[in-house]
Amino acid sequence: KLENGGWIGRGSQAFFSEMNGKVMPAAQRLQNALTEASRATKEISNTVKQAEEDACSPFRAR
What we know:
Shape: rod-shaped
Helix content: over 70%
Largest sheet: none
Distance between the termini: 68 Å
Oligomer: single chain
Number of strands: 0
Order of helices and strands: HH
């Protein structure tokens, strides 16, 4: 609502220009990076878990 006439003037133009041109794209890049970091962390966790299972399997009672 603010951007559609709720707030007018040079200050609003500068604010929306900064938000739409820099802040929001940076926030989207951060979200993408955190999503990828989460995926990579889960993959690493699964790999370590599997390695631990493989390493201890010869010592388990049958």
